[in-house]
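Action item from last meeting closed. Structure (328 res):
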């Protein structure tokens, strides 16, 4: 993409309330994401918000309060503002550039007992649902250890404190949080319609700190599954509290379990909360977890075969809509 086209793209995005992405660009090369710089910027930006609260910067959500709010908002719904149709010119922007400003890094920082520095806690993915700072991610992202503070970073490097949790669904692994936007209007994504099995999907997420990675696949199936939490991989290393909650969920009757959407698009630890798009750039699901199958213990080569297949289970659009008033 030449300089003229890049300038036009930046003007187009900013003109309709979207941010241009501040990442390294070559003269003619694709966008280059600086992973180390973004991680450092997240820690520094969130630390500044935690240490310097003001009238414009509300208190940053701490992990103990996050667990309390998850319980208080279980089953609650939020009301979305009216959304105008996207201008046709914006729809002509390539999907990656169009949606990237509304995909966020969500994570936490904490202080250890050995120094005065802030350290990076868990990091996951998320996406903006409204211009006033509603952000969607997985329920399990907020089940960090004590004294972790949560924040969000957009693709241009701006960091915002997570202020509260507005709605949650533990069994469906979804939560909607509120950012302190400091009065800014943020870019956001649109919800689509449920995809059929075989339909193409795109995932953009942050697997293992590889920020803004895009993978493609198809919808594999929709299902209800009462999974064993010991083989479940999520965004962060599961704490005791996370495993306890997961085991409680597995005792829920099948008829009350959420519907999951499996996809073949690739993702990994750190991708949790990443949006799943249809070919038009509408959100039709959200990354949640993976399951690895193993051969039967009665199989004579059980020890040598290892994992046979990895299922990639995503929060379904039905679960996301269940957190929005009139979403159904």
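Sequence:
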């Amino acid at each position: 993409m030449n300089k003229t086209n890049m300038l036009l793209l930046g003007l187009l995005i900013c003109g309709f309330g979207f941010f241009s992405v501040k990442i390294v660009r070559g003269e003619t090369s694709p966008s280059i994401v600086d992973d180390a710089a973004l991680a450092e910027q997240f820690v520094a930006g969130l630390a500044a918000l935690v240490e310097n609260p003001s009238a414009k910067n509300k208190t940053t959500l701490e992990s103990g309060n996050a667990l309390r709010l998850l319980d208080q908002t279980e089953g609650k719904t939020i009301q979305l503002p009216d959304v105008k149709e996207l201008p046709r010119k914006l729809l002509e922007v390539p999907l990656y550039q169009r949606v990237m400003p509304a995909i966020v890094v969500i994570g936490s920082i904490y202080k250890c007992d050995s120094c005065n520095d802030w350290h990076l806690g868990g990091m996951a993915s998320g996406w903006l649902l409204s211009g006033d700072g509603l952000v969607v991610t997985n329920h399990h992202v907020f089940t960090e250890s004590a004294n972790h503070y949560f924040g969000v970073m957009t693709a241009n490097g701006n960091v915002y404190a997570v202020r509260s949790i507005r709605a949650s669904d533990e069994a469906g692994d979804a939560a909607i949080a509120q950012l302190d936007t400091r009065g800014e209007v943020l870019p956001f994504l649109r919800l689509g319609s449920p995809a059929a099995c075989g339909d193409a999907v795109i995932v953009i997420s942050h697997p293992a700190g590889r920020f803004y990675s895009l993978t493609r696949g198809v919808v594999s199936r929709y299902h209800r599954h009462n999974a064993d939490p010991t083989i479940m991989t999520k965004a962060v290393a599961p704490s005791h509290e996370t495993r306890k909650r997961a085991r409680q969920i597995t005792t829920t009757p099948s008829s009350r379990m959420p519907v999951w959407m499996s996809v073949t698009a690739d993702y990994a630890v750190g991708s949790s909360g990443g949006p799943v798009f249809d070919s038009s750039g509408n959100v039709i699901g959200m990354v949640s977890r993976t399951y690895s199958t193993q051969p039967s213990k009665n199989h004579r080569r059980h020890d040598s075969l290892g994992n046979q297949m990895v299922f990639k289970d995503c929060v379904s659009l039905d679960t996301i809509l269940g957190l929005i008033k009139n979403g159904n």
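Note appended to the action item: The first strand starts at residue 24 and ends at 25.
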